[in-house]
Known about the structure:
It is a single chain. The radius of gyration is 29 Å and the shape is globular. Helix 3 packs across helix 19 and helix 10 packs across helix 15. A seven-stranded parallel β-sheet has the order 3-2-1-4-5-6-7, with helices on both faces. A six-stranded parallel β-sheet has the order 12-11-10-13-14-15, sandwiched between helices. The protein has 19 helices and 15 strands. The two termini are 39 Å apart. It is an alpha/beta fold.
Amino acid sequence: MLLRLLSTRYCWCLGERRRGETIQLRKLLPAKHISIQMAGRRNEEIEKRGRAAVVVLGDIGRSPRMQYHALSLARQASLEVDIVAYGGSEPHAAVVDNPAIHIYKMPQWPTSTKGLPRILYPLMLLLKPLFQFFMLLWFLCVKIPSPDVFLVQNPPSVPTLVAVKWASRLRRSAVVVDWHNFGYTLLGLSLGRSSRFVTAYRWIEKNYGKMANGSLCVTKAMQLELVHNWGIKATVLYDQPPEFFHPASLEEKHKLFFRLNKYLTDPHGIHDCVSFGTMGIGSSDLNGTLFTTQVSTGILLKQNRPALIVSSTSWTPDEDFGMLLEAAVMYDRRVAAILNEDDLDKNEVLWENMCNGKQYLYPRLLFIITGKGPEREKYEEKIRRLNLKRVAFCTMWLSAEDYPLLLGSADLGVCLHTSSSGLDLPMKVVDMFGCGLPVCAVSFSCIEELVKVEENGLLFSSSSELADELLMLFKGFPDACDDLKSLRRGALQKGSSAKWATEWEEHAKPLISKVISRNHD
């Protein structure tokens, strides 16, 4: 009883007991003071250990999966998160506003080489990865606090994996690689798989990838490739939509289309079936948009609205945007043939009838193409030269908040992604399913891990097949298109069956926790 009483009021210790000596108690500081000191040390330890660095050698605003990783590390793992990446596009507000997430933007290598002699181009190609390597080292070793784990996006592999591995040794941190694709296959698109540069790139990617403490990947097919041919054991973390991807309400659609009115009414100065009908909408008609109208009883979708099709692209060679343009031309011509329209009929007469409420068996199609990339201007010029009766295009870049609303307001999504490795899946399709949006996607080896034909989408291998699918899905739009409605129900079911937070909690969190624990043992 006496010992219990003393231990509750004082911190005591036993003196060394020798033969013939009695146990001695030494009065020290009050126990509450010791507990405060111990709590302080624990807090210092938590603060020291509880940190992750997310590394992206790219625009963080255009790297949604790594943004979601950062949110989950902060919310679900209760870690402080430092994002090291390039700027350019604004990340989602949920990332920017989270007090536990800190964004460090690295300066970029100059993209323009105009004015330089061509003889210096090879030198510039050599200097660029060296500049990136030392810039990464500076940020990872000096600019950010020492993390417990680096979570790095791959590709690009060079110099990212090398710099992160060096930094991890200097800072005694663990490394987890998130395999989105294989970098050497992307390089092979421009140089050819037989290039010596591609061979060297693959060697670096493989060997430095094997040095990581843990790996995540995006498909089961990639997991098998990594374990059998690369000797890397990876955990599959499927892309899943976060909570802000959901079907848009009528009010959200109405407000979004008002904001987008300036893009829709004059897309690149083109006179087409959509811009003809939007003259004055949003200015003289304050209650209406191209798709919606506000009446005394609420907001309604217009019966004569065009079908809205969304495609998100990076405008790179691994996405053949020309296939979509060809399909649009085929749709336009096939509808005209089905309806026995004369090619000599003036487009303006047809468009005026559409705007006045006349409905046809097949609707106008408006393709909104979102994204940034190197081939955007080339295809915009091709769009300007099209002269279509029932199809219009509009290219734009949306904020991270408006992009999910657009997907949630659309009627169909189109994915042109063809994997350079055949082993990754397009995240844009995952986002579309999260918004209940059915998808027509280019067929490749592992796409059926995501798109279930005639359940939540369709696959195509040519522009002709895509045109056939557009005709089938939009016949009788907006009320009598049963095939489209069936796919929408499947997309809604797919999108609501799993969310990013659930997938991350089950697969990524245990791996990252294990890696951090082992690194501190």
